[in-house]
């Protein structure tokens, strides 16, 4: 049985200290000091989009709460802490996202580094006892870390039903990870199993959540919770219940349990788990649906379209970027503005952003 902490954030406060306090309490209830050890620490956040879209990416308030908790404990020096994520297939650059979301400014404030893993050196590593992945390219930044804290967002996903503490490690794989979408659930389990000894703690950002066509074009909603656990399987099991989903039916959670990443037998501490009825995607957005259609045409077509040397792949990637940019300006920005008017959005805006960031 693993501990999962659940802490409700003040639903009305516009003071970011309320978030910092909730993060600290969630981490302490889950005994973070016992699991976060060593000298080099990486916070693996989720900056899957270089647009301001609350519920899509890890909020800087939660990241700052983690930094304050760790630095004030004196367990790590700021110079040895890295905030990191990677680029996506849809030509989303993590370093741009860090600037847009205010995370780069936050890193400078505390003297920690912010790194786009896609711009680092990679090493090919072998996976033992893998379900589907036997070797992969992994950033040396992650391989050289003593401890990695994964900091995901609570949201739905058109391929994997939900994305949380386990799915967040998808960003630990080299840029061509889209080629594992047909075996996504087993691949998620394999990646998490590889990092089993290094990713020792997880903090789930539940200030906002996303339902529908996640992980980008879903609908955001204000949630107001922070969750933490040393066990990623346990954390996702609990959060699936929060979202109104059956964790036993989410294959990457059950596969991760089967390979020994963690347990689905949980003990919740702190506040009682809230219950929300998240809508899952009835169908994928155009980009994701087109990808799956092409991949199902057969292995030869899939290889021709998506291999790293394919002349078609850049066209597909730019098409995806254009679709997401158009969707954002037609639909997404209205959702973003609505969320930014909430108390958590006001914290974000006042503390980390410039007024022109949402224009």
UniProtKB/TrEMBL annotation:
InterPro entries, alphabetized: DUF362
Domain DUF362, first and last residues per copy: 42-240
- Show the Pfam families listed in the entry: DUF362
**Can you say what this protein is called?**
DUF362 domain-containing protein
Organism, by scientific name, is Candidatus Azambacteria bacterium GW2011_GWB1_42_17
């Amino acid at each position: 049985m693993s501990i999962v902490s659940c802490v409700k954030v003040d639903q009305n406060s516009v003071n970011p200290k309320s978030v910092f306090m909730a993060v600290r309490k969630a981490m302490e209830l889950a005994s973070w000091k016992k699991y976060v050890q060593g000298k080099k620490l990486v916070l693996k956040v989720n900056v899957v989009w270089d647009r301001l879209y609350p519920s899509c990416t890890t909020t800087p308030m939660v990241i700052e709460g983690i930094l304050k908790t760790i630095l004030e404990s004196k367990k790590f020096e700021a110079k040895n802490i890295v905030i990191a994520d990677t680029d996506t297939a849809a030509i989303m650059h993590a370093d741009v996202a860090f600037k847009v979301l205010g995370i780069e400014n936050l890193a400078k404030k505390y003297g920690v580094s912010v790194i786009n893993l896609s711009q680092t050196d990679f090493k090919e590593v072998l996976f033992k006892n893998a379900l589907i992945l036997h070797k992969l390219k992994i950033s040396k930044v992650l391989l050289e870390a003593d401890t990695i804290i994964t900091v995901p967002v609570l949201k739905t996903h058109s391929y994997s039903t939900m994305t949380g503490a386990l799915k967040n490690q998808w960003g630990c794989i080299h840029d061509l990870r889209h080629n594992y979408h047909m075996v996504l659930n087993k691949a998620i389990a394999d990646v998490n199993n590889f990092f089993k000894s290094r990713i020792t703690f997880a903090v789930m950002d539940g200030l906002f959540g996303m339902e529908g066509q996640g992980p980008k074009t879903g609908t955001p909603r204000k949630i107001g919770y922070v969750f933490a656990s040393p066990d990623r399987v346990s954390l996702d099991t609990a959060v699936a219940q929060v979202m109104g989903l059956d964790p036993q039916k989410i294959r990457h959670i059950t596969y991760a349990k089967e390979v020994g990443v963690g347990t689905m037998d949980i003990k919740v501490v702190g506040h009682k788990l809230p219950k929300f009825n998240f809508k899952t995607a009835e169908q994928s957005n155009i980009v994701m649906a087109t990808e799956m259609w092409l991949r199902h045409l057969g292995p030869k077509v899939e290889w021709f379209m998506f291999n790293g040397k394919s002349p078609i792949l850049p066209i597909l990637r730019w098409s995806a970027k254009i679709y997401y940019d158009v969707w954002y300006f037609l639909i997404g920005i209205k959702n973003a503005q609505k969320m930014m008017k909430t108390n958590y959005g006001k914290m974000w805006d006042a503390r980390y952003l410039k007024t022109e960031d949402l224009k």
